[in-house]
Structures are given as structure tokens and as C-alpha cells.
Amino acid sequence: MGYAFQNKALKVVHPIQQARNEKLEKWLKNHMLNEKFLELELSQKLQSKLDIPSIASHFSEMLSTYVDHAGIQIDCSSSTVVTLEGQIAQYREVVDLILDNERLGHITLMSRQPINQWSAIFFRYLARYLVYPVKNAMLVESLHLQTITDPLTKAYNRTALGHDLAQELARSRRDGSDFTVVMLDIDHFKNINDSYGHQAGDHVLIELSAQVRDLIRESDSFYRYGGEEFTLLLRNIGPAESMKKVKAILAHCRTQPCTEIDEALRITLSAGIASWNSEDQENSLIQRADHALYISKESGRDQANAA
Questions:
Q1: The one catalytic residue among 141, 218, 228, 263
Q2: What is the pTM of this model?
């Protein structure tokens, strides 16, 4: 299944090392004949693993019994996240993971030494047992993503916000790192629904969400809090930098024409900013940001205020 490539390099091999390699190759040949033994052992290790990191860890652990390697890397086609177990190394063997003509991704074997022929073959042989666990893990991840994602805007939902906020509070109490919560509200959104219809309102929510996600860092997170209200979680950033970032988002959004609805229509946002302090709890951060948002709306909208 799949394909593989191997980087090769000339190397003088010591007679003792050569003898070890020959012994390993003979041992590998014998074990490759015992398919049922390997199938049972792999199944026992992988059948209960429903996430890619655990699969990579257990596969690497089992493979190390047969093939010396520096690391294993699994790349899933459905995700931009790469799972690395061990360390990156120069010499590599790559195998596609294919199930029912669907390419799930690929797995890479990495070694600090050139990979000999039988080690490469054995790795490719074992890799075929990964396709079902990887497929199952991808399905579980997809289902989990659906439970924490707003179906309309594809922003994270309040369930995800509560989880992430608790983690950031714990991390900040532990190491003192900064983070900021931002409440965003679309100005006069009811007027948009009343004037252009709810379908147009949905279009505004979708487009605005896409614009904001494009303007934040990969380390930040964007959530739909409810209705036309959204939340930003800006990690490792203090009050001054947060205000600058939020003002840039507001400035960008107000300049974008809604050509599919009305070229004269401009969408503006009001924002409330609350940066973490040592006395904060989850609710107090949201409340402080929400109060700052209220001030922005009462002061004329299309602006940001800090708690």
C-alpha cells in the first residue's frame, strides 16, 4: 500500500556493526512471516486508542522493538496538525495511509542512520495496521469538533470557551503569563435583519467571523458567544497590545463593503477588553469584558474600551 522513499548516503560500516545488521535483517525476515503474531500485538496496543498522538506513541513504542528509529510522524490530510512522537531526523521512510481508495494521510519513519532495506520493508508492513485506528481517530476528532463549533459561523462555541478559559486561568496562575478576553458585538444587527432579512443577517455573521479569524494569530481563539456577540481569547498578550490588536480588527471590519447585500452597508463592531489579573475567575473576566463592551455601545459604538 502507498509509496515510500528513502534518503541514502554512503557509509563505511564496521564489521561488528555489519554482523549486527545481518542478524537484525534475518530476525526481521522471520518475524514478517508471523503475520498473526504481529496483528494480535498491534491490535492490543491500538484498538483502544482514539486520538492520533496515542496511536503514534504506541506504534513508535512497538516499532522500537524491531527497528531502531529517532521518531515517528503522522500527518492527517483532514488536519493541519502534525503529530510527532520522538525527534525529527535526517533519514526518512514515508508511507501513505490509504483505506478504500481514500488517502488518510501519511506516516514518516525518521532515523539518524541510513535506513536499511529490511527495516524499511518492515516499517511499511506494520504501517498498514494503522489505517483503521487513524480513520477512527479522525472520525472521533471530527465529531468532537462538531460539539465545540458553531454550525453557522464555524467559530468555537461557549462550551469551548469555558474549557479554554479555565485552561488559560490555570496556566496564568502557574507561570504568570498574560492573556486577554475580548467581547465583540455587531452594531445595529437587528436593523440589518429588519431591513435585509435574516438570511442577510446570517451572511453578515459568516463573513464577519471569517474576517476576524483571518486577523488573529494561530495561538488566539475566536468564539460565538451568542446571537451577534463574539469572544476573542488572545494568548500571551498584555493590555496595551490587546487594545492595539482589537482596534485594528475594528478598523478593518468597518472598511469592508457588503457587496452581496448592499454596497452602502458597512458593518461595525463594539468591543470590550479585559486582561487577566491574579484575582480573576472565569465569570469575572467575562463580566469585566462585557461591562467594557457596554461602555463602548453607550459611548457611540464602533469603538473599544478596556475594563
A1: 228
A2: 0.67
